[in-house]
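Summary for the steering committee. One of the milestones for this cycle was to obtain a three-dimensional model of the protein with zinc ion bound, which we needed before selecting residues for the alanine scan. The sequence and ligand used are listed below.
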Amino acid sequence: MQTWFKLKPTFKEMIWGGSRLKTEFGYDIPSDQTGEAWIISAHPQGESVVENGDAANVPLSQLYKMIRPYFGPGKNDEFPIMVKIIDANKDLSVQVHPDDEYAREIEDSLGKSESWYVLDCAPDTRMVMGHHARNSEEFNAHLLSGNYDTLFRNLTVNKGDCFDVSAGTIHAICEGTLVYEAQENSNVTYRVYDYDRVDAKGNKRELHIRKAMEVTKSPCKPDPIKSEPIVVGKNRVTFLVENEYFQMRKYEVRDQITLELSDVFMIISVIEGEGRINKNPIRKGDNFIALPNEKTLTVQGEVTLLIVEPKAEKMM
Ligand code: ZN
């Protein structure tokens, strides 16, 4: 049975999007305002599709249902994770996402906790991460009176920074940032502030102030995650994020490294270089799913991978 799947992304055009998904990753994007590549997605609003082997052309949600036990323990047949690459050619709206409990009740959806790895950014690039209010009353008051500059907390970001953006965290990716984002399989976003931008027809995008006030955590001032790489010969492994939904690691391979799969599938994204995993050629921009039956992955070459592994508890 097939245990190694190459996935083909889908793309989302956005008013803030650009063309770096093509120039950096070689993706066949629909326009020079493409904001997101949904590189691993089983979401009904845009699915990735298998490119290789017997399962070629099968959408990910269908593959997951067809061979569910091979992906790991549990019976939940809804694919648990979504992974995107985001090209912020302009600032994204300031936004917040609900947690599972709120999203289930109000939106009939999973909530959205997400984690970011900054693939690239210009010097002195900003990001909104949390806010300065001491409690919800203060947050609501500042938001309703439009005191955005005093309310939103700006950080300077650097290439390689990593953030765990849990549900309820006010955030915005800003102009000049290329982000790898792992998240729950959800598309519920509450927009708080959109810089009064209008689209080609002169329309502003909808804001969701009341819901945002209901789900925003206070106080909330998350900083980048600090993690030191572990050196393995010429190679380096960095544990970036671990939350209740998934873990994310970075492998900077310079000659060869072997990793073992647990009893849960792995999402593997090539963010630099090229090489091989087992007998399969890999290069920058490629995204794969390896099933536990693959057992070990021998990575060779000069290549940097991000690997996302869902938590088995979330597959039950
Ligand atoms: Zn978000």
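Key point for the committee: DSSP finds six helices and 23 strands in the chain.
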